[in-house]
Amino acid sequence: MEAKVRASPLHLRAPSIETDGQDQEDPKLLVANRGEIALRVMRSAREMGISTVAVYSEADRNAPFVRFADEAVCIGPPASKESYLVIDKIVKVCKDLKVDAVHPGYGFLSENGDFARALEKAGVIFVGPSPKAMKVMGDKLAAKEAVKDHGVPLVPGTDGAVSGLEEAIEVAKTITFRS
Per DSSP, what are the bridge partners of residue 102? Predict the structure, then answer.
């Protein structure tokens, strides 16, 4: 049975799962991070009635966040590049355990558009910005361009990249610096 998830990525709650009258397990959130960050996300999820899944490296086997999770899956050796940063392993766990959403925590894959796209392709909600928003906001000039017509205060500077030291000095002369 396939559930229809009608939640915004930041508001996954039990009532957001429609089951067309059939039994549905509790919503399930995988936390793609470790340590205190993962534990805090899992505590909040539990308060909301959402089941949690921890992914962990061999080094974190006995960590508090692993023990706290409703389910936990080892995704590789201690090196992050072989565990926490391997998108395919995390997506596979999502599919295998029928995860509804993934919270990336901070760092690791939290600002990785490829990760968000892979989850989207797998039918899993990414709790965070869209891949497009990550791309735009990850580029300072593109971010400035995206918000300039929306009344967002901007730091004084140029509309584009400066071409060299002389141009930078000329721009600096036009900016008021406060001490």
Answer: 30, 126
Q: Where are the domains of the chain?
A: 4-134
Side chain identity at residue 166, one-letter code: E
What is the CATH T-level fold of the domain 4-134, as seen in this structure? Rossmann fold (3.40.50)
Phi-psi region of 81 (alpha: psi -120 to 50; beta: other; left: phi over 0): alpha
The closest alpha carbon to 48, from 114, 135, 127, 109, belongs to 127
- pLDDT, tens digit (0-9, with 9 covering 90-100), for 23-41: 456 899 999 999 999 999 9
pLDDT-derived band at 65 (thresholds 50, 70, 90) equals very high
- In eight-state DSSP terms, residue 159 is S
Residue 133 contacts residue 60 (beta carbons within 8 Å): no
Residues 125, 126, 132, 133, CA torsion sign? positive
Tokens of 104: 């990336």
